[in-house]
Amino acid sequence: MQIEFSAPVVRWDKRVESWFFVTMPQELSEDIRELPAPPRGFGSLRVRARIGATRWTTSIFPGAEGYLLPLKRQVRESASLAEGDIAEVELEIIDL
Fold first, then answer.
1. pTM value?
2. Average pLDDT of span 87-93
3. Burial of 47 (0-12, 13-18, 19+ CB in 10 A)
4. What's the burial of 50, exposed, middle or buried (CB within 10 Å: 0-12/13-18/19+)?
5. Do residues 51 and 81 make contact, with C-beta atoms less than 8 angstroms apart?
């Protein structure tokens, strides 16, 4: 399943080091929740992601407002993304 969306980069400061995410739009997240997928920790789904020229494999996690895609420092730096910037994301869900 291929997905494309745009979303702002947000910071989560609940730990010593800040974590950064983009939240998938609610409608896309609802569609994903209906897909048959194997059970994984925290309800996560494995994905291949791309922002700009950077591709990586990670997991998305269900959140209150939609699935969350974590953004590693390397990804943010490669795409010149900071908190509040809009990320153009391509995802392929690989857990289906």
1. 0.88
2. 96
3. buried
4. middle
5. yes
